[in-house]
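Budget justification aside, the reviewers requested a transparent look at the raw inputs and outputs of the sequence design task funded under Objective 1. We therefore reproduce one unedited record. The lines immediately below are the structure tokens for a 212-residue chain.
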């Protein structure tokens, strides 16, 4: 089974509202949720964009990977495999601590167990002090891009601009609506809204490598 209904209800949407968001009919959404219509790659892209998740999050397998994760854990010893996890650097900061991600990884590190079978997983250097004391400048946050975010998760929000450059924000997800994310930072302690049309993707942070 897929997770369309679960993600739709997390948004507080009816089938008709989701259908409107992806330009289809309510019966079509019903068939997709029940598995009566195949969830093709095209359907996954359309639904994921409307629901603010990565396409893989629509699959039941993504939820199964979450059950044993603690997003507050500082990972240090539970490493697997080779140094094949890409880590992206950051450049200039902006409003709310937004940074630009380097287009290519700047290094590769050993993969932690929560990302052992997540090909699209990645690390991101922390810049600035807006999330201290939870995260310090120079830490590497470990990111699961396919896991659906829940209220209270630490997330990396991503915006891709007209030049295909990626910009990122590390925040705690408090709530969301059809058109905004409500997030919190710790330094200074502040809660504010971000437009979902601009910050389309939220990627869950499953841990960090702390700078020594």
């Amino acid at each position: 089974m897929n997770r369309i209904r679960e993600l739709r209800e997390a948004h507080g949407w009816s089938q008709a509202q989701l259908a409107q968001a992806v330009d289809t009919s309510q019966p079509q959404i019903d068939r997709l949720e029940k598995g009566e219509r195949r969830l093709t790659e095209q359907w996954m892209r359309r639904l994921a964009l409307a629901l603010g998740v990565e396409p893989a999050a629509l699959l039941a397998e993504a939820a199964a990977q979450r059950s044993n994760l603690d997003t507050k854990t500082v990972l240090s010893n539970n490493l697997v495999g080779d140094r094949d996890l890409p880590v992206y650097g950051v450049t200039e900061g902006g409003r709310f601590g937004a940074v630009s991600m380097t287009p290519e990884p700047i290094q590769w590190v050993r993969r932690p167990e929560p990302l052992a079978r997540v090909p699209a997983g990645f690390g991101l250097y922390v810049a600035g002090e807006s999330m201290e004391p939870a995260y310090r400048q120079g830490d590497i946050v470990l990111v699961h891009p396919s896991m659906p975010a829940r209220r209270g998760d630490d997330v990396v929000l991503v915006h891709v601009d007209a030049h295909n450059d990626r910009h990122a924000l590390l925040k705690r997800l408090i709530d969301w609506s059809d058109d905004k994310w409500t997030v919190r930072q710790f330094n200074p302690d502040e809660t504010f809204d971000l437009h979902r049309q601009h910050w389309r993707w939220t990627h869950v942070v499953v841990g960090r490598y702390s700078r020594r």
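Residues 62-77 have pLDDT under 50 and may be disordered. Residues 4-64 form a domain with the 434 Repressor (Amino-terminal Domain) fold (CATH 1.10.260.40). Computational costs for records of this kind are itemized in the attached budget.
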